């Protein structure tokens, strides 16, 4: 079988969550900071910008347990763009909630920093952004573009706005407005990226949250009891991330019901994502072959494996979308069944440098010299530490191994050198989080699995991180590695 038509050439990209973008308003958005980042990517000779899911988050700010598989996170709506639309006044953007590190609400690549809080204060952001969105909503006049958006997205939007209205008591029109603004700003940003030769890689979580709009609207598609409550929930057994396994708590799919429907919900979900991104990573691909089910009142140690959508699902998807640009996240315990499904799918798989020092020295498939061509290689994921963070917490032996592998002493410049080792690897696609190019420590870690709080999903880059000198350094290594 020929390889997937996508990801065949040597290319490079940077992983940057929207919320982590430098911003004068405390959280990344679809405005000037995002456009500046695209300019940075172009200067750095990058092909891809990979983001984390853009969906609304759960109460712990995780986009991997979303109340909707289709809706967008309204906190990414840019306030300055609302001013340009005449929906907000500049005087309404009070300085008391702007990030004190910025002297101006407009950033440039070389903008200097004053003080910087590396973590997002979500409660503060919500308390300041939502009243401004309400002001913008009251000033908004429906137009043809709005009406077309409502019509084209009715298959998910109608249920979502009713769901949110029931939760909050706000009008359905308000939530329709937020989704319209979200997707209008995002599509404009994506168009700008594409015009600069940058493709955007999105991310689809396998599961949705319990009591999500998707579960409530389609209870037959989930494993629920007669009261529409799950008795089994999602998670994973002990692995490299957690010695006791993880209990995520998401409701599980009724794959037989999905099959009988012709996978209608999944096809709509993938079609939606392939419209808003240029390519998509399928999180927890392993769960499509077999999923781990945990009794709701017990721990991950009491879980068991059950068959997922499997080969029939993958072949249906590949036939429907004709060789879709998907990446299979195949991390964790991989069985012969998963390997067979990966072969059937023909999607490029993932390798992660941070796992490379767990196996006997030099043998790990996660070390760059062992990467296969049909691979998307990462230095870290949103669930692992940075390279510097890993080094700092490693044993003396592992530190020595890492120093020798990357050709440095005492961990000096080890994040950047680790990133370069991936660029030089045989993997067709190399995706590096900006934090490794910057040699940032565990402060910049995005998430620690199995924990809540702990600054998860809240790391926020300083505006000085996106500077011309770094872009040129990355460009030089990208060119030397034959990825331009």
Description:
This protein has 484 residues and is an alpha/beta fold. The protein is built from 17 helices and twelve strands. It has helices at residues 32-43, 79-84, 122-139, 144-152, 154-168, 172-195, 213-217, 255-260, 264-276, 286-289, 310-321, 336-345, 387-393, 396-406, 414-423, 434-437, 468-480; strands at 11-15, 48-50, 199-204, 232-236, 246-251, 279-282, 290-295, 304-307, 326-328, 349-352, 375-378, 429-433. The strands form two sheets. It has an eight-stranded parallel β-sheet. The two termini are 27 Å apart.
User: Which spans of ≥5 residues are poorly predicted at pLDDT below 50?
Assistant: 95-114
The largest sheet has its strands arranged as 9-6-3-2-1-12-11-10
Major pleated sheet: 8 strands, parallel
Order of helices and strands: EHEHHHHHEHEEHHEHEEHEHEEHHHEHH
Share of helix among residues? 25-40%
* Helix count from the secondary structure assignment: 17
Give me the count of strands.
12
Radius of gyration: 22 Å
Cα(first) to Cα(last) distance is: 27 Å
Q: Mean of residue pLDDT?
A: 93
Shape: globular
Structural class: alpha/beta
| Beta-strand fraction estimate | 5-15%
